[in-house]
Design a protein that fits this description.
This protein is α+β, with helices and mostly antiparallel strands and 743 residues long. The chain has 24 helices and eleven strands. The strands form three sheets. Strands 6, 7, 8, 9 and 10 form a five-stranded antiparallel sheet that branches. It is elongated, with a radius of gyration of 30 Å.
Length: 743
């Protein structure tokens, strides 16, 4: 592989106009497609194989005009202080609003709160339910505008009016912190390279890659049912890995220049060596993201595949566009150790030349770890273990309108309904009774209703509504607790347990659905899929790393270190978003259960990113070991060449992920924080401390591989041993490929 990538790097450097034109054309094509594509809303939510989804599918068959998955809105009215909603003037405003909403082309029904008894006991709060014949994603802007205008007209009369439900979807806002994250990345790159030109290349190529990826997602969003969250996550991951991959190529290029190689040759060797690490690091991220499809939840699969596509683009850009741009930059990109005059690098270079044998900070740290490996190992493991303790209290759930920022109308409507009707009113359960096989459908439905009334945490059970055939009924159940509580989850399981007994007696099938039940089933499905997902992803990546490192223990150590970092990161997420630690500082307005998809998504993404640092750092160690150094010295050599760059890459990735903590979308905020803290733990504790400590303790055993397996595995040549043959130098560079080092 190294030989192929070496030739690719030289070709891109030499034919830079052609390569740059291709990428500009792709960016333009994706941009035009995104500009002309119809806008897409929130991703449709379906969970194949769950009871809640089966109930929705049954409703579509037995209640064809019901539009079970149609959008809903609750227009909540609150009377001014000292007044009641039943006052004549306020009642007239509400009925006028109901009439105005009924004229919508996509509206199927609007309930008058005074006819449906949707007025609170104290008479101060009322709500009107609006149902549409299309899902929230398909709802036209005109219908949303009409809903907002009707609410605004009612507000003009002095009433407090807010809108809940899925008819209005708040567009996530990332805020200025995302820009700050990119600015921090730029500063780190300038410090690392000591050159504005060299620092600008990773940022430029990362933005091009993200531009192509996100524009493609936007262009296909409507056709493939991709929501706004999909593109946001793809941008988050694509930007981070795009900068990092380019950073490693440029750093290796400067190191090759420092050894006196001619620039085209240096570009080829940079892509052939560091590029090999980029390919395998990118593959681990892609495997982890595409592996999310094993969960069999379409929304999660699309998010993973879209993000994986952006990572693949980042890899291709690092291998082709970076060497092309290095060709354009020419001598403006200095060899390692030389910095621009702007940053005072000439004096630093002279000092470095006067002390050629002085080890850098990475080498000094590695030497310290090699001398005291057991102490460093125990300290790192105990520290991560302490950070992971809160994960034992992990509670999973899905956010509802109650987790929205208080600035949104959905959150204010949620609070008004809780105030007037109780917290459980925001998460009603729909019980579907399929009595087609029952001898007496009405008797079966009546028994179901009676059983539910006898359960704890039930406030209201509405009369059953039958379909035309009279063999299927729906019952609405209002819990006493809020939708995301454990008590409500227990109630759902209680209804289902009672339904199993009823089925044995009456042959009637009882199914629980609705958004609350769907969220509970979603969480359960994610929990059930976590172990198979770990086995698949870690297993595939383990085999891949065996080929990269030609070792059994190094990949095993990498996987165990990942588990430590991800558990510590989950502990930090629980402490902040569930317990409320530092919640004010991070802008967390509402604590509660951790998003159901958070553990499995973090496992996927963090595993891929953790393997990035493992590949980049340890390949340098193996390269030194293969070329004859002792195991302990190879560890120091790997850190001397790679620690500074890996540190910069980690800081950049942390900055980029932290930028999304400013998002108004709670899911994006939580994922941004979780990934940032996970990268911190994995890069600075696991890879920088635990990894060298373990390798120092193992010695030569770390690189042991059974002979039969060594013969069976293909030689990927990540260390670039074949480059000597490719250049015809037998491992040494001919004079034609060298140029005098510039001081």
């Amino acid at each position: 592989m190294a030989t192929f990538l070496y030739k690719l790097g030289r070709f891109a450097f030499r034919r830079r106009h052609f390569v740059a034109l291709i990428w500009v054309a792709l960016l333009t094509l994706a941009g035009v497609g995104a500009a002309n594509a119809p806008a897409a809303g929130s991703t449709s939510f379906s969970i194949p194989g769950t009871e809640a989804q089966k109930a929705f599918d049954l409703l579509e068959q037995r209640f064809p005009g019901m539009s079970a998955d149609g959008a809903t809105a609750r227009v909540v009215f609150k009377a001014p202080d000292g007044e009641k909603m039943t006052d004549a003037a306020n009642k007239a405003v509400v009925r006028s609003t109901v009439k105005e909403l009924s004229d919508g082309s996509e509206v199927t029904s609007v309930d008058d709160p005074f006819k449906t008894h949707a007025v609170s006991k104290d008479g101060t709060i009322a709500y009107a339910s609006v149902k549409y014949d299309v899902s929230g994603m398909e709802l036209k802007d005109a219908s949303k505008d009409a809903l907002n205008e009707a609410a605004q007209d009612a507000r003009a009369s002095g009433l407090t009016v807010e809108i809940g439900g899925d008819a209005l979807t708040a567009t996530p806002e990332t805020g200025s912190t995302e820009v700050i994250g990119i600015a921090i990345a730029a500063v780190v790159l300038v410090i690392t390279f000591g050159s504005l030109i060299a620092a600008g290349l990773p940022l430029l190529t990362a933005l091009i890659g993200v531009g192509i990826g996100v524009s493609t997602i936007t262009a296909l969003a409507n056709a493939l049912d991709l929501g706004t969250t999909t593109s946001t996550l793809a941008m988050m991951i694509g930007l981070a890995v795009g900068i990092d991959y380019a950073l490693f190529i440029v750093s290796r290029y400067r190191a090759e220049l420092a050894e006196g190689r001619e620039r085209e040759e240096a570009a080829g060797r940079a892509v052939g060596t560091a590029g090999s690490a980029v390919v395998f690091a990118g593959l681990t991220v892609v495997i982890a993201l595409v592996g999310l499809s094993v969960v069999n939840i379409p929304m999660l699969t699309k998010m993973g595949v879209a993000a994986a596509g952006t990572v693949a683009i980042a890899v291709l850009i690092a291998l082709s566009l970076i060497p092309a741009l290095l060709g354009y930059a020419g001598r403006k990109v200095q060899p390692a150790g030389m910095k621009s005059r702007l940053l005072g690098g000439a004096r630093a270079a002279r000092k470095a030349a006067a002390r050629p044998g002085r080890p850098n900070m990475g080498a000094r740290w590695a030497s310290f770890v090699v001398r005291r490996p057991m102490a460093v190992l125990l300290l790192g493991v105990l520290g991560l273990g302490a950070a992971a303790v809160p994960a034992a209290s992990l509670e999973l759930g899905l956010g509802d309108d109650g987790s929205q920022p208080v600035s949104t109308t959905q959150r204010r409507a949620y609070d008004l309904l809780s105030e007037g009707f109780g917290p459980g009113f925001n998460g009603p359960l729909m019980v579907v009774v399929d009595a087609e096989a029952s001898d007496s459908p009405k008797a079966a439905v009546s028994r179901v209703s009676d059983e539910i009334k006898g359960l704890k945490d039930v406030v209201t059970v509405t009369p059953a509504t039958y379909n035309k055939a009279g063999d299927t009924a729906t019952i609405t159940v209002i819990p006493d607790s809020k939708p995301s509580s454990v008590t409500t989850e227990d109630l759902v399981h209680g209804i289902r347990d009672a339904g199993a007994e009823i089925k044995g007696d009456t042959d009637a099938t009882v199914l629980v659905t609705g958004s609350t039940a769907m969220n509970i089933d979603f969480s359960q499905k994610l929990n059930d899929a976590l172990v198979p997902y770990l086995v698949l992803v870690v297993g595939l990546a383990f085999l891949l790393l065996i080929m990269v490192f030609r070792s059994i223990l190094v990949p095993l150590k990498a996987a165990l270190g990942f588990l430590l970092s991800v558990m510590a990161a989950l502990g930090a997420v629980v402490a902040v978003f569930q317990w409320g630690w530092l919640s004010g500082l991070l802008g967390v307005e509402q604590t509660g259960p951790i998003m159901s998809m958070m553990p499995i998504f973090m496992v996927g993404v963090v595993f891929g990113l953790a393997m990035d640092y493992e590949v980049f750092l340890v390949t340098r160690m193996r390269e030194a070991y293969v070329h004859g150094e002792k195991p302990s010295q190879a560890v120091v050599t790997g850190f001397r060449h790679g620690a500074r760059v890996v540190t910069a890459a980690a800081v950049i990735m942390i900055a980029v992920f932290s930028g999304f903590i400013g998002s108004s979308e709670s899911m994006i905020k939580m994922i941004g924080f979780g990934l940032a803290i996970a990268v911190f733990f994995d890069a600075f504790v696991v890879r920088m401390a635990i990894v060298p400590a373990v390798l120092a303790l193992l010695g030569r055993k770390a690189w042991w591989l059974p002979r039969w397996l060594d013969r069976a595995l293909p030689n990927m040549d990540v260390e670039g041993e074949g480059l000597g043959r490719a250049t015809g130098s037998g491992g040494k560079e001919p004079d034609a490929h060298r140029e005098p080092a510039r001081v």
